Amino acid sequence: MEFDLKKIGEFFAIPGEYRSCEIIKSGNINKTFLVKYLREGEEKPYIIQKINTYVFKNPEQVMQNIEAVTEHIRAKIKATGASAGRSVLHFLHTPSGENFAYDEEGGFWRGYRYIDNSVTYNLTDDLFILEEGGRGFGEFQKNLADFDASSLYESIPDFHNTKKRFDRLFETAEKDPLNRVKDVRDELRYLRERYDESCVFCKMLEAGEIPLRVTHNDTKCNNVVFDRDTNKALAVIDLDTVMPGLCAYDFGDLIRFGANNTDEDDPDLSKIFLDLDKYEAFVRGFVGTLRDCLTPVELETMYLGAYVMTTELVARFMLDYIEGDVYFKLNYPEHNLVRTRAQAALARDMEKKFPEMRRIIKKYC
Q: pTM of the full predicted structure?
């Protein structure tokens, strides 16, 4: 084991006897471990994470955001008379009251209680699970609809500033530091041609046409935990990128990842297209839950969120490839190149389906 997880657990004074640890391989950014402690004759599971401080430059601010939104959601749930034990993450605290700890090398750690009898899904064709995933993120935003988004830190400044991301990509591509641009010329040309369409929400936000909201900003279906027996959505996890944002971004990333016919990094481009049945399931859960909280303009333009998040991911994967793979975790050397091409293929297919995407959203409004 690369890290002494028993010692990390001591920072948070986890009660009981440390028994075991296993690496959880999902996720591209942080290192995540499932640890178990024996207490009162039963094994109690916890999630322990080492935060990537290259990505999250101000991890203490990230944890302040998380504390604020989880406590707000917890209070909302309790106000209904329901238990919040399985509906929102409960983070561990040190004896001095902090929800994080540093190790001797300056590594930044946090932990939270594992939600009992729960399961996550990376990819699924089960439309009920997809609808529940959409509902889970919809409930997350609904519970935070009265939370002051401006009070949160930007854990990653300009995270969804598509214009800045495109501009930086184009500048870096001109320099071509590692002679890799030749591998992505078609995808780079496509982004140049779709610059205005991809930056539409930046312009709308600047014009005051859409409101800032508290958003999750990483709405993959595997960031919802489900009840193992019923497959009902329980809680939203992976809250590092909770910050001010746009509802369309959360919806868009949910669709980009979950309504793709295949993996987001499938090298076989013939398999990549927007599955409209999956899309509708997500719309039913997400828009059906949130529709009364959103403005008419948000609802009218919601479908574009899927396209914008997809072209933005093309830009992000491509930039990382051109710069030498410094951001995203790789499974093999050409991983970012494959991701770039796969997301570009998905964006092109979405364009063909804009009319149907709009119709489905109107159906649930």
A: 0.91
